[in-house]
Amino acid sequence: MSCLGNYCIKQMKPSPIIFVSLGPGNPELMTLGCYHQLQQADVIFCPSTANKEGEFTSKAAEIITAVGIETEKLYKFHVPMQRKREAALAAYKECADEIAAMHKKGLKITVAVEGDISIYASTQTIAEYLEDAGLTVEMTAGIPSFIAAAAAMTHPLVMGTGSLIVATDIEQIRHNIERGLQHGSSIVCMKIKSYENEIKEYLSAPGSYECFYYEFLGMGDKEFTTSDKSEIMARSFPYFSSMIIYNPYQSEHNR
Q1: 86 membership: H or E segment, kind and range
Q2: Which domains are present in the chain?
Q3: What interhelical angle do 196-204 and 170-179 show, nearest 10?
Q4: CA-CA distance, 250 to 239, in Å (whole number)?
Q5: Are strands 164-167 and 241-246 parallel, antiparallel or unpaired?
């Protein structure tokens, strides 16, 4: 509070920049907390990527407009999809600078994140840039794709004394499989496009565990799921694909 003579003015604390986790793709799986944050925002930053035809699309923007948020709030920023991260890092830094400039004008800013901000979200880099600049960042939790996948396969991810493992390369998966998956344990295999041949080699081996493959989960007609290993072997994995390898839980009742 600052005072001048007999007059005092209460200084308003700047609003934090909110990172909103939209969930796996189905607008109905967005949490109420995320929806309310989007409603209250002045500007919503949405990542966009280029498809094979060179057209820019934003799944985040599609999810947001599907729940009735005004398109006028949306501010799309392009994220290069390349193995080398230099271009993406430059795009995130530019985005962080734009957010900081708008925030300085007193606007309430949210940044949309597909899935959940805490699980392999590349936009986490933007949050780090903002915090380095001395700005306050808050995050709203969302439903990650593998939680939605567990519901789709109608099988628990983890039960009893089992473990839940999240892996991003074939060596992590092999290590945990060689140790032996306990009953009720699962391995969530993320980013499987980058080791597609190796995961298919594992699935073709005798004695491999049960699995559930999913791509474009929650994305309407593009969604595909299967537990049939022959169907998985025949597919070319897109970027938005993952798999759950699991050892079914055997309860005392079923033994």
Answers
A1: helix 86-104
A2: 17-140 (3.40.1010.10), 145-247 (3.30.950.10)
A3: 30
A4: 34
A5: unpaired
Rounded CA-CA distance 122/100 in Å is 18
Instruction: Fill in the DSSP letter of residue 23.
Output: B
**Which H helix or E strand runs over 231?**
helix 229-234
Which pairs from 36-39 meet CB under 8 Å and 24+ separation? 37/110, 37/140, 38/64, 38/67, 38/69, 38/73, 38/110, 38/112, 39/69
Pairing assessment for the beta strands 2-4 and 7-9 based on DSSP bridges: antiparallel
CB neighbour class for 90 (10 Å; exposed up to 12, middle 13-18, buried from 19): exposed
Q: State how far the Cα of 90 lies from the Cα of 132, in Å rounded to an integer.
A: 15
pTM for this entry: 0.84
pLDDT digits (tens, 9 = 90+) for 93-139: 999 999 999 999 999 999 999 999 999 888 899 999 999 999 999 99
In this structure, what token pair is assigned to residue 240?
Answer: 């938005």
Residue 248 CA to its chain's centroid (Å): 26
pLDDT in tens, 163-172: 999 999 999 9
CA 166 distance to own-chain centroid: 14
